[in-house]
């Protein structure tokens, strides 16, 4: 069985918490740079609103047979040139010119589960 690899895996499941305490779970594209994980979303999306209200986040790679889960805090950031480059290389997607997914969050990992 292949070992999970955050640099190669295509999607990550993002778990955030709504202001009323209900969980929200959604798959997204992501990159990892210098130990921090980056996701990009629409500013008015449920996950963006959740992360603006509470920075707590959990991320899980897709392969449930070989789990890779991290927990941490997310904050909205302007993506660095390195993060922009990584999204372009991994997905052929320029996050700087996307008109919809304009909010980037940086996740500082506090715990690998």
What do you see in this structure?
This protein is an alpha+beta fold and 113 residues long. It has a domain at 13-72 and 99-112: Electron Transport, Fmn-binding Protein, Chain A (Pnp Oxidase, Chain A, Roll). Helices cover 17% and strands 43% of the residues. It is built from two helices and six strands. The chain has helices spanning 46-53, 81-91; strands spanning 11-17, 23-33, 36-41, 56-61, 69-77, 103-112. It has a six-stranded antiparallel barrel with strand order 1-2-3-6-5-4. The model has no long low-confidence stretch (mean pLDDT 95).
Could you name the key traits of this structure?
113 residues; alpha+beta; Pnp Oxidase, Chain A; 6-stranded antiparallel beta barrel; 6 strands; 17% helix
Summarize the model shown:
This protein is an alpha+beta fold and 113 residues long. Helix content is 17%, strand content 43%.
SSE blueprint and pairings:
Layout: E1 11-17, E2 23-33, E3 36-41, H1 46-53, E4 56-61, E5 69-77, H2 81-91, E6 103-112
Antiparallel strand pairs: 1-2, 1-4, 2-3, 3-6, 4-5, 5-6
Tell me the quaternary state.
single chain
Question: How far apart lie the N and C ends?
Answer: 19 Å
The largest beta-sheet arranges its strands as 1-2-3-6-5-4
Share in β-strands: 35-45%
Summing up helix and strand content along with how strands pair, one would put the structural category as: alpha+beta
CATH superfamily of one domain: Electron Transport, Fmn-binding Protein, Chain A
What's the alpha carbon Rg, rounded to whole Å?
13 Å
Low-confidence stretches: none
The CATH level-2 architecture of one domain is identified as Roll
Shape: globular
| Helix content class | 10-25%
The number of helical runs is 2
> What is the CATH top level name of one domain?
Mainly Beta
Overall average pLDDT? 95
The biggest beta sheet is recorded as: 6 strands, antiparallel, barrel
């Amino acid at each position: 069985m292949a070992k999970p690899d955050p640099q190669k895996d295509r999607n990550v499941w993002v778990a955030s918490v709504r202001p009323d305490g209900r969980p929200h779970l959604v798959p997204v594209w992501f990159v990892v740079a210098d130990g921090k994980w980056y996701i990009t979303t629409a500013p008015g999306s449920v996950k963006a609103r959740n992360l603006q209200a509470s920075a707590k986040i959990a991320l899980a790679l897709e392969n449930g047979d070989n789990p890779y889960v991290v927990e941490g805090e997310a904050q909205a950031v302007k993506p660095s040139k390195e993060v922009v480059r990584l999204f372009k290389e991994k997905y052929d997607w320029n996050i700087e010119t996307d008109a919809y997914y304009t909010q980037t969050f940086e996740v500082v990992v506090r715990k690998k589960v």
